[in-house]
Design goal:
With 357 residues, this protein is an alpha/beta fold. Helices cover 31% and strands 13% of the residues. It contains 13 helices and eleven strands. The strands form three sheets. Strands 4-3-7-9-10-11 form a six-stranded parallel β-sheet, sandwiched between helices. A three-stranded antiparallel β-sheet has the order 6-5-8. Strand 3, helix 5 and strand 4 form a beta-alpha-beta unit. The longest helix has 15 residues.
């Protein structure tokens, strides 16, 4: 690289017009045609861990190329995006392994919740279940949990659910359970100790929206959004990350919406909590393109963009049927003893594996 920089510096700095014309000829394509005087003098400027020669009139060069180059512009770069798509096509062709892709179905919008056969809620009480899976993402749910926990008429359950890495053939590989990594003031419950079929909570909050369509990881299939919606009248998806506003001209960002907006959890949820009104519009527009213009009003009704703490009203208007106290504990899956905070990660993983089979 030093040789290349040396040649560039020598050519740019030369007083021979013919030599300088040769350099200009390298960039003489359409809008990349620059005046020779731009390159008559050079200065050294830092680039990563080195200094490189650039035209002393770099401001004129940049303006000739980009106009107002100080204005941030979102656009395609010189590489195909996302680059891995071409590799994926080659992989599927050579191996015959097809990665599933979520396709919208109107049935995913239907509510199939069945009422509990045994009344477990009080007339004025509500039951809310939070299903985080990565402790590092708990912060996005914490606001909703805090408001629910402070409501004397609300019974709250925090149930961390296991997730696993996938092998290349999509089979389950290493399994993770992070129930012992939550803040001390958050009581957690072992995920097998809560009977969804019997209890039918008023609200279920989820963080993982991918169901079976994530190629890298998966939560326990029981906790897929398509399955959970049968146990509640209000399934709420809370985005676990914050994004800057996505502009229509930012094609790379728009392309990426396929991976976190056009997913089962967003479609199946009764409410979707995002970070801002701008992101709500982005979600609505992307889902409308995905499912058809006739569904726009559906997505507009889902969006709750006030943020998780202010969105507590999502569960406050859902009334239960009979009350009880929570008594949340983390328990060994076979019932022999309770999991304690001091248990090693290896110990917990062994018993999670036993449940997954």
């Amino acid at each position: 690289m030093e040789i290349v920089y040396g040649v560039q510096k020598a050519v740019v700095a030369t007083n021979d017009p013919a030599e300088r014309d040769a350099l200009v000829g390298q960039v003489e394509h359409g809008s990349n045609r620059f005046k020779k005087e731009y390159y008559q003098e050079t200065i050294l400027m830092p680039f990563e861990n080195i200094e490189i020669p650039v035209p002393a009139m770099y401001d004129a060069v940049l303006k000739a190329k980009y106009g107002d180059y100080s204005r941030l512009v979102h656009n395609w770069d010189t590489h195909d995006y996302p680059f891995y798509k071409g590799q994926l096509e080659i992989w599927e062709k050579k191996t015959g392994v097809q990665f599933p892709k979520y396709v919208f179905s109107e049935s995913d919008l239907e509510s199939n919740c069945r009422k509990s056969e045994i009344p477990v809620h009080g007339e004025k009480r509500r039951e809310v279940v939070f299903l985080p899976y990565k402790a590092s993402m708990w912060e996005s749910m914490a606001g909703c949990w805090k408001e629910a926990a402070e409501d004397p008429d609300c019974d709250v359950f925090v149930i961390p659910i296991p997730y696993c890495d996938r092998n290349i053939d999509r089979s389950f590989h290493e399994i993770h359970y992070e129930g012992d990594l939550y803040p001390r003031d958050v009581q957690v419950m072992w995920y097998e100790d809560y009977d969804f079929e019997k209890r039918r909570p008023d609200v279920i909050y989820i963080q993982n929206p991918y169901d079976e369509y994530n190629q890298a990881t998966s939560v326990l299939p029981f906790f897929y959004a398509k399955n959970l919606k049968q146990f509640t009248d209000c399934l709420v998806y809370v985005s676990s990350f914050r994004l800057t506003e996505i502009l229509p001209e930012d094609k790379r960002a728009v392309e990426s919406l396929e991976y976190f907006v056009k997913v089962p959890g967003v479609v199946c949820a009764n409410q979707v909590i995002v970070s801002s009104e701008g992101m709500k519009k982005t979600y609505v527009d992307a889902l409308t393109v995905f499912a058809g213009e006739q569904t726009r009003s559906v997505w507009e009704g889902k969006g709750c963009s006030a943020g998780c703490f202010e969105a507590g009203g999502i569960f406050l208007h859902h009334k239960g049927e009979s009350g009880y106290s929570t008594g949340m504990v983390a328990r060994h899956p076979e019932g022999r003893r309770k999991l304690q905070k001091g248990d090693s990660v290896q110990y917990r993983r062994q018993h999670v594996i036993a449940v997954w089979g």
